[in-house]
Amino acid sequence: MSPVGALGDIGTALFGVIGLLAALRRRDTTGEGGYVDVAMFDSMVSFADVVVNWWSMGERPDPTQGLSMILDGFRAADGWFVVQVGREHEFARLAELVGEPAWVDDPRFATRSGWREHIDVIRDAVNRWASTMSNIDACHAMAAAGIAAGPVLSAPQVLADPISPSATCSSNCSGPMAGTRWWYPVIRSSCQDCPSTPRRRHRCWVSTPTRCSLASWASMPTPWPSCAQPASSAEASCRQGEQPAQPAAGTTRRSA
After folding, report:
1. What is the mean pLDDT of the chain?
2. Boundaries of domain holding 135
3. For 194-238, how does the pLDDT look when each residue is reduced to its tens digit (9 = 90+)?
4. For residues 166-187, average pLDDT
5. Residue 157 domain-assigned?
6. Is 94 left (phi over 0), alpha (psi -120 to 50) or beta?
7. Residue 175 is assigned to a structural domain of this protein
8. Rounded-to-integer distance, Cα 114 and Cα 200, Å
9. CA atoms of 118 and 196, how far apart (whole Å)
């Protein structure tokens, strides 16, 4: 089953929301309204930008081979993971990690097209290396070595993930689904400095990084719906036209 689902519908709606936010910002700064025009085809081309980008630069890959890079699925003990290697220093890291340092001087892999031509050799070695790991552990090892990788999660893995943006519905189900518990995705939005509480709408509608970006774009600060708590240091620096400080190493910031 393709994991893309209703990308055309959801993705186009997201671009529509961006357009609405820009129109509201324009109204706040100029007092004038705007017309938001969103096309599904345009939105999908934006998501598939790599197709037109590479074609415009003269790349004409064999449909059965793909681009001259490693962007493939590999097998771990409990499933698959995807690795992307597009530059020579990344290939050297991959070779060292999977126990094949000689690849760096191997004529077969002297060019990126060689990586593509001999992808089966690479796949066998990576599969052997990851054969005793989970796909998530393999990705952690890749990331530690400076290689882009991501696990291919099954539906049960997605639903079991503690940060999975999912919710359940067990009511208003009829027909063949009557009495069945089914899952559907929900986009959770959170706001910095606004703790999430049940049955309470956040007063802070736009995250601090977004506020900074929009304020910089408009070249003038304007009032935003704000949290009840005092402004954070990042928000204060944004209001003063400064770049907000980055989070300390080892910390994670989530924003809507």
Report:
1. 74
2. 70-152
3. 555 443 333 333 334 444 444 444 444 444 333 333 344 443 443
4. 55
5. no
6. alpha
7. no
8. 57
9. 51
Question: Does residue 81 share a domain with residue 133?
Answer: yes
| Residue/partner pairs of 26-32 with CB below 8 Å, 24 or more apart | 28/222, 29/218, 29/220, 29/222
15 with 46: CB under 8 angstroms? Answer: yes
Where does the pLDDT of residue 85 fall: very low under 50, low under 70, confident under 90, or very high at 90 and above?
very high
List the Cα angle 25/236/255 in 5-degree steps: 65
The alpha carbon dihedral of 127, 133, 136, 140 has a sign of negative
Report the alpha-carbon distance of residue 59 to residue 42 in Å, rounded.
22
Q: What pLDDT, on the 0 to 100 scale, is given for residue 139?
A: 96
Residue 121 structure tokens: 């050799």
pTM: 0.60
In angstroms, rounded to a whole number, what is the distance separating the alpha carbons of residues 170 and 178? Answer: 9
Tell me, yes or no, whether 246 lies in a domain.
Answer: yes
**Residue 254 within any structural domain of the chain:** yes
3-state DSSP percent of the chain in helix, strand and coil, to 5: 45, 10, 45
CATH number of the domain that 102 lies in?
3.30.1540.10
The number of distinct structural domains making up the chain is 3
Closest CA to 36 of 18, 62, 55: 18
Whether 147 and 75 share a structural domain: yes
pLDDT tens track for 96-149: 999 999 999 999 999 998 999 999 999 999 999 999 999 999 999 999 999 999
How far is 70 from 115, CA to CA, in rounded Å?
7
Same domain, yes or no: 142 and 75: yes
Cα 135 from chain centre: 18
**Of 127, 152, 177, which closes a domain?**
152
